[in-house]
Amino acid sequence: METVFQIAILVMSVVVHEVSHGFAARALGDPTAELAGRLTLNPIKHLDPLGSFLVPLVTSFAGFTFGWAKPVPYNPYNLKPGRWSEALVAVAGPAANVGLALVFGLGLRFEIVPAIFGEAGIAIAFSVTLINLVLAIFNLVPIPPLDGFKILLSVLPFHLSEKLRVVLESYGLIGVLIFVFFFWQVVSPLVYFLFSLITGIAL
Fold first, then answer.
1. How far apart are CA 191 and CA 98, in angstroms?
2. Which residue of 52, 80, 132, 138 is most buried, as measured by CB atoms within 10 A?
3. Domain span at residue 53?
4. Which runs of E-coded beta strand occur in the chain?
5. Burial, 184: exposed, middle or buried (Cβ in 10 Å; 0-12, 13-18, 19+)?
């Protein structure tokens, strides 16, 4: 039951992440996500059979819950005012996860959650905060196809960003798997620090 509970929170968190990309793109002039019917919190529109079910189930047995939804489509050529717009679209997803973590985490710190929802709300807020911090930090890692890579390409000079894109994008999934299984333990202390900072609860 706890595994199902964690996967449900993960799925809704990645849905919020992806929808935020779509809303940011629309605000910058691109209606692609809206026309595709993806500006909705209905998880059915966003679920990926591998990333939303199989991967979260397998990783939950390894001590952490990880997964993804189908990326929300956008057309970078419609974005205004320029190449920085892609960075704004990319950062919108992690920013949404940070926002969720702050709302639920501060609700724990100031005992708002238990006052309103009782003891059951504590477990929910705990998981929402932790999972969303993991999603935010993970997606900011600068390897393709993660948001951090898109942000990196936007801030680099054009000739460097294109060379990096050509070299790394074809190895994206391999890079993500290597990072998850061999380097995530290097980053995870940052997640625990931020969780304790926001909630006042030491992990």
1. 11
2. 132
3. 2-199
4. none
5. middle
Whether 34 is a known active-site residue: answer no
What pLDDT, in 10s, does the model give residues 29-78?
999 999 999 999 999 999 888 878 777 877 777 666 777 889 999 998 99
What does the CA dihedral 31, 34, 40, 46 come to, rounded to 10 degrees? -100
Domain count within the chain: 1
Say which amino acid occupies 147: D
Cα separation, 150 vs 141, in Å, equals 10
Contact 35, 76 (CB under 8 A): no
Q: What single-letter DSSP state applies at residue 76?
A: G
Residue reference for tokens 């920085």? 84
For the whole model, what pTM was predicted?
A: 0.92
**Sign of the C-alpha dihedral, residues 72, 146, 24, 20?**
positive
What tens digit of pLDDT does each residue of 71-123 get?
999 998 999 887 789 999 999 999 999 999 999 999 999 999 999 998 889 99
Residues near 159 by Cβ (< 8 Å), separated by ≥ 6? none
Q: List the structure tokens of 153.
A: 């390409």
Phi-psi region of 29 (alpha: psi -120 to 50; beta: other; left: phi over 0): left
**pLDDT for 1 beyond 70:** no
In contact, 183 and 189? CB cutoff 8 Å: no
Q: Which residue has the higher pLDDT, 107 or 176?
A: 107
